[in-house]
Each structure stands twice: as structure tokens, then as C-alpha cells.
């Protein structure tokens, strides 16, 4: 049985940062990932990472922008931690080797981003996530003796001891189908969001809410799950992302009549208002018949105004995306975009050290909800979130782990899990196909739990999710082998996604006001008197249970939010 | 909607049948990707087909495969283009999809990248060894230097270049294009403290930078314009020009002798080439013992060539000379490429598209000319 002081699930930015921090604190570390670490979806983060690093900037300004961006649902103590520690974290990355772009004096260059009151986004062209992820993996390789990597292992469940402490996991080696029980003094979930619950989404096919569902099944509360971010610029064609960095560099949005409509919705910040505001503005233009494109279902993003030389230097990746995935040369013509699912602000509730209410279980990154993003995340704050809370989880978990003995998880759980997986592999072939169920789920969520919502459509979504759960339980399996059985993985992922969908829809029905990304056409106003609080979903047996948690306010009282 | 026939290489180590081809027709819009075709096969017909994939937008590097024999990303290759290519090479429009080459197959389109690709990456000490003392704030480095290494940082480790590296096919120990491009990411990074030692190790390793044969396969295969061969060439220039390292198979001196002769005479003076490659790049090179030994061992070939009229002994002594004006024109080309007449262009950036900034067809052709 493999044993580690700290066991991390997921090897994107949060997971790798946690691994490095835990190793530096002296712990023995295991890091499990269902894909090779550099394939993790952090790789797709494009625009950059926020930090008040300019001497004229102040982390309090960054914190206020974040609080306002969250529509006052973010917990201000956590936001203060994130923003005050940001400059040091970015410098740590720079020292590790991240190739941040420089200004003419050779210092870190900063670009403008949505919802920010000044330029504070450090970047590597428009491949910032990739650059940081690959550099962290370089550091992981340099710590080979302290950090054991389990690459292409799939975690199927978390294990608790009699007192309820999380003491290990069960994972399957995808290379040979072997199931293994891992013992750990602390487990850190760092396996990302649940974008694949939606179709289309900017998120990769691997982003299936595994960590959120694993924690949910163990009894951990999920918080702010109704807050689902729609990114303002995703390709109409296929939902792929065009970075906010484009607007940061000066690109503008035009409706079908050629109007720069953001002047009406956010007269000061225009295209650089926060994402919920821009997405809602776009969707309103489209719904009111002022959309662009052949069927009026899009909006034009005009990047040509940035200038060809700067585009090729700083937005090179989206030149490729435009050319290869939409057939458009963005240096010469506008590109058709629309709001598309991008990020889940909610997740497993944690404190500022990443600890969940379940002892021994931590969460960091998109899987977690600290909550620093509240109702709406600012662009370039997610990389920061993963790194700050990844590091803090790793450090805290290591400190705790070094003071306790290695737990002995009960082997009975392994036998149980082996039987459960064998049952999936033995399923008869009369059920629906997995991909069909997944597509219906994605389309339902994108239709009913999107930018605009109301009670009626949310109830429809809930009914569909409930039906799909029953169908998924008997869905058809084609592959019965042990080597790289992606069919089995897809079945497990589908059940994770359905758990996440349930929590999202239930929370969205519960919040009877409009705040951040959650806009109820039947309750169009923000209602601080009744709803300035977090909604939590917890599994009680097999039934979901809703409860509330207060929002922490330190120095910024809620105000009317305009951009 | 259009129909496309995919012919996929299948292999399951659990099954007693060996590798085989499986054909399946899919229905998708013309410009959809080969990956979407594969995903449709999984979704509708056969969930047991194994292929790594995630982002669908050429950034995660998972879906490296060979399509109609050419390595690339399934997500970045359009079905209509793949079909047209298949027709052009006489495969009748059927799109063949196979696992990457030079790596063992685990199942279907999934290859063992740890066994080859990542093992090689590990050989180049793939992490920054920061210059001391580490500054309080960021390292202050030239703007261009960071743009420069961004080109190799843009490598997504998909393995397409490894798949078709000819030098690696001949010598599986060759460090290879991806890992050497990764090495340049540190050698080109002014923050690294071991740049010289890194180059020295890569130059002195018999399977290192001097084993690349300049076949351009990796340049063609790379879906991210990392230009691995270009990075290898830059490492070689640093090794030979800056550090004076002589490569074991004499390629650098051969290249220098070749260039000097063309520069002096306007055309290659073949009889001088061999002695200069071994004895040193001047007229006196032929008197060096190493040149003598090489000439002696080549004597049989030389005599044979003279007897068969392939070599004119007179031409060997008196080289062909171009008219002065033409010779001067050739020399101007050399001056231009060496940078003497274009002070704006620093040599170390010459192959980098992120710095040069353009990737128009004619521009990249010019880049290629410089490389040759």
C-alpha cells in the first residue's frame, strides 16, 4: 500500500504548487493525476496572473476590485490573503523560471484585464497557464526524490476512518487497470472544476468535476455552486476560448449593427467590465435581435485595432485559434464570439488554509470555494487562486502531517470498490450510450442554467438531471478490458458530473435574487437583506440538504455595483 | 454535414489478435477536426477506442497521432484537409489514423511517452538553475530574451517531432528534437547559471546536438512553430562559435570549410574541402597530419574517381573562379547573412519568429534560407 504524508489529487497548477510546498516543508508527497500533469486544464489559461506588483499599485486596490467583481459574495478575509500574498507568489514563479514578458527596462510587464482598476496582470504572451504549468512540472521533476508522481491514475473514491478523518484514496492505474489503496495523513483535492457539465464549454474534456463529487460523496459541503461563469468571448463555432487578454490589449465588441454596445452597459470600463456584466450585455443584445453573424447568435470581437505586430507578439495563440478553429485571421477581420461556460466559482468549502470541514481533507483551485470569487471571478484571478491556496494547503497539510502517525485505512473499502467497478464492467448493453447522456446533460445545463435563469427552467433542468442519473446508472459500456479503459473512466466521470449538476441546479433554484453570474429574470435585483450569504449543499445519506453560511466582510460594505 | 471514412490503427494488449485496421464512416461538418471524428466513433459506435485528448484547441498536447502517415495533433487537423491529402497521396480519401512513431504503443492511439519522450526530457536537466544571488524582486533581463525563450516555452510536449525524427530512428539514444528544444529554453534564458555547462554537455554527448541531421522533419511536424531543428542549430552555433567545441563527427569544420570556399571562390572548390574539414579552414590545412591521414584513407576513392573521369586533376589544383562581379555578389550575401551589414539584427534571435514577429509564407521561406 503506497503511503504518503500528503497525497494530492490533480496535478494542475494548484496540485503541483501544493506538492512543491509540502515537499519543501519536509513531507513525503504523492501526486495522483488522471492525465499527465502538463495536460491538466490549467494549461489552457491564457491571459495572465494578477498581482499588485507595480510600486504604484496596492494589494488593497486589487482586493477591492476582487470584492466588487464578486458582487460582494466573496469572503473578504480570504480575498485579503490572496491579494496581499500575490506579489511574492508571482516573484517566486519568476525565480522558478517562468518566462514572464518584460517591459523595456527588463522588469515584469503588466497588461490590463477586466474589472481591474489598473494594469496588474503579469503574462507570458497568451500562454501564461501553459508557461507556469510547464515550469512547475520542471520543478516537480527536480524534486523527484521527495515527490512520487502517479501519472494517469484515476481516483475513484476517498476513504475515511472511524472518526470521519480522510485518511486515503482508492485509485486505478489506467495503464493496467490495477486498483490500489493509498494511505495518507492528509489528502488535497486539486482536480479542477466541472466545465464538462455544460455543452459547449471552454473547458477540456477532462474537466468533469471529479474532486467536487468525491468530496460531496464524503459529506463535505459544496458552496456557491449556483455561480457559474460565462466567459464573454468564446467561439460561436465550437465554444473555444478567446482570451480576455485580447480586450486587455484593446480589442472591442460590436453588435450586428456595428455599435460598440458596451457604452450602454458599462460606460466607464466598457469591454473591461467584469465578465458577468459583459456576458449579460452580449446576451441581451443577441436576445433583443441585435446579434451578429448569419443567424444573429453572436457578437463581433474586433482585435484588428490592437495592431498586427503586437497581436503576433502578445496574442499569438489566439491567432492560431482563429485560423485553425474558426477560419478567421484575427489580425485582419473581427471574429464571431458569444458568452460560453468557462468557470465554476463554487466548489468544496474550505478555509484560507484549504482545509475543508472534513478533517484531513483539503481542497485548492477551481475544485475549492474559499470563497475568493463569490458571485463572479475576475479574469487572471484564477491562476492566482490556484497558486496561493495550492501553496497554503500544501504547507498546512505538511505541518499537520509531520505531527501524526500514518493512518491504516481499512482494506475492506478496496474490496468494495473492486466489486463496484467490476459491476460496471459487467453491465449489459441495453442502456443508453454514455456520450448521449453526457450531451443531453450539457445541452440542458447550457439552455436552462446559463446567463439568464428563472424558476420554471431551473425546475425543468432538475427533472432532467434526476432522470439522467437513473439512465447513467445503467448506461452501456463497450470496453471490458483492463488497459486504458476510457469507457469505464467515462462512466465514472459521468456520475461525478451528474452530482455536480444536481448541486448547481439546487443552489440556483434556492437563490431568489440576482447577484454576480446568477441572474434570475424572476428576481432581477440584488437582495442584500435576504441573500448576502453563501448557499451550501451537503449530501445527507443519499439526499442533498441545503444550508447557509455568512459572508465575511472586513473593510468593504456592499455598494451598488457599476462599471 | 459530410461523410468521412476513418481508418484507425487498433491494438489491445489484452486481446490475442495483434494490431489491425478498423474502418468507420463518420458524419460531421467539413471543417471539423479528426479528433471530433474519433470522438464520434467512440460516442456512437465503439467506446473501446483509446485516444488521449482534452482541450480540443491544440494547447494540452494530448492528441498527437499520425494522420495519413504525418505526425500532428488530431484536434488541429481538419477532416476535409485530411481527406484531400489522402486523395493526393493515392489513399482514396480514406483518412488513416495511427499512433505516433518512435514510441511503444500501449493501446490503440495511446503511446508510452514516458518510455521515450519524457526520459529524454529528463536528460537535459529540465529545470532552471537560477543565477546567484537570487534578486529580491524579478531578475532584470532584456525584453527580447524572454520573447526568445517563449518560442520553446510554447512547446506542448505532444511528441509529434519525436514521432518522425530520422536521427532517432537510426539512433534511439539520440536526445531528440523536443528535449533539445527544451534545452535551448534554459541556454537561451539569461537567468540560468549553467548555460555554458549545458551546451558543453549537449555538444560532447555522442547522442547530443551534433547528431541532428537537419532533415526538417521536426520543423514540419511541430504544431506550435517551436522549430526544434532551429533551436538545435542555435545550440550548435553557441557550442562551436562561442565555446569553440569541436564536434566529434567533424560536422562543424566541414560546414565552415564549405562556407569559406564558396565565399572565396563563388563556387565550391571540392578538392580543398576534405583537407580543410580535417586539417583546418585555410590553404595550409592540407599539411596538417589529420588531413594527411584522411586523404590517405580516401585515396582509393580519389583514384577511382579520377580513373572514371569524375574528377579532373587539373580542376583540383586550379579552382573554378567566378567573374569578379559575381564573386562580389556572393560575398555580399555572406556579409548580409553574417550580420555585418545589418547591425539591427542580432544573430542569436535570427531564427525566432516571436522576435522577428512575422510568419507570412514568404517570411518563413527567408528564415529557412538562412538556416540552410
CATH top level of the largest domain in chain B is Mainly Alpha
Query: Any idea how many domains of chain B?
Result: 3
CATH topology-level name of the largest domain in chain B: Fumarate Reductase Iron-sulfur Protein, Chain B, domain 2
Q: How many angstroms does the end-to-end distance of chain A come to?
A: 55 Å
Q: What is the CATH class of one domain in chain A?
A: Alpha Beta
Query: What low-confidence regions of chain A span 5 or more consecutive residues with pLDDT below 50?
Result: none
CATH superfamily of one domain in chain A: Succinate dehydrogenase/fumarate reductase flavoprotein, catalytic domain
Indicate the structural class of chain B.
alpha+beta
* Element-by-element helix/strand order of chain B: EEHEEHEEEHHHHHHHHHHHHHHHH
Q: What fraction, in percent, of the residue positions of chain A are helical?
A: 25-40%
Give an overview of the whole structure.
The complex is a heterodimer of chains A (563) and B (372). With 563 residues, chain A is α/β, with parallel strands linked by helices. Chain A has a domain at 228-342: Flavocytochrome C3, Chain A, domain 1. Chain A is built from 16 helices and 21 strands. In chain A, the strands form five sheets. In chain A, strands 1, 2, 6, 7, 8, 9 and 16 form a seven-stranded mixed beta sheet that branches. Chain A has a five-stranded mixed beta sheet with strand order 17-15-10-20-21. The termini of chain A are far apart. Chain B has 372 residues and is α+β, with helices and mostly antiparallel strands. Chain B folds into three domains: 2-111, Roll (Ubiquitin-like (UB roll)), CATH 3.10.20.30; 114-242, Alpha-helical ferredoxin (Fumarate Reductase Iron-sulfur Protein, Chain B, domain 2, Orthogonal Bundle); 251-341, no CATH class. Chain B is 46% helix and 9% strand. Chain B is built from 18 helices and seven strands. Chain B has helices at 34-45, 79-88, 114-122, 143-153, 160-163, 166-170, 177-187, 195-204, 217-221, 228-242, 251-265, 270-279, 289-297, 299-307, 313-317, 324-338, 353-356, 361-371, and strands at residues 2-10, 20-28, 64-67, 70-73, 95-98, 105-107, 110-111. In chain B, the strands form two sheets. Chain B has a five-stranded mixed beta sheet with strand order 2-1-5-3-4. In chain B, a hairpin with a 2-residue loop joins strand 3 and strand 4 (70-73). In chain B, helix 4 (143-153) runs antiparallel to helix 7 and helix 11 (251-265) crosses helix 12 (270-279). The longest helix of chain B is centred in the middle third of the chain and has 15 residues, at 228-242. The two termini of chain B are 44 Å apart. At the A-B interface, helix 3, helix 4, helix 9, helix 10 and helix 13 of A face helix 1, helix 3 and helix 4 of B.
